[in-house]
Task: structure prediction
Amino acid sequence: MTPIKAVFFDVGNTLLFRHQETILAELHRKGVFPTTAQMHAIERRTKREFDDSVMRGGDVDHGFWWAYYSHLLEELSPQEDSLRDSLVTATRISGNWCDILPGTREVLRRLGRRYRLGVISNADGKIADVLKICGIADCFITITDSGLVGYEKPNPAIFHAALKGLGANAAESLYVGDVYSVDYFGATRAGMEAILFDVCGAYRDSAWPRVESMQELEARLV
Result:
């Protein structure tokens, strides 16, 4: 394996996580409060279904969260299309992804002393501002947002744009993201190495390289 010189990160469910109080506010008003264990179980189920769909040519941008909230509402409350749609809309707002795991900035700063760091995200053109508000934008040399470059993962074009922006070689670069069909498949198809950031354990039984925390990622890279 060629030594890694650059590491790129996904944002959602990798660097930043949903602010549940904001995104689930309408659900909470109905007296429904899903637990972390319930949401992780739904995420594992949805990722398996979503990966199968994307690999068969399904919709990347809208499909995951539509399926996720459909499953969540089926389990926790009466199915309401309007409620599901409002949850999807809230989730697609980059500013609502503002929860950060403890130690994330510290790990990024240490990794930045050894590797060139960048971001590649399917977002709405505002992810650089969100990363700045969350206090980690300065950890990255480049931030590639699909809303600005016009290509979404898993299209190799967005990975190539990010590599060019950072002046990095694909064979010497690693991508870290949470969805196999979008992140792992997209990055490896672009010639990069990849690791799944798998907090919910969706890929625990797979053969693909995976970590469950930033600290575990750092241990693999250092």
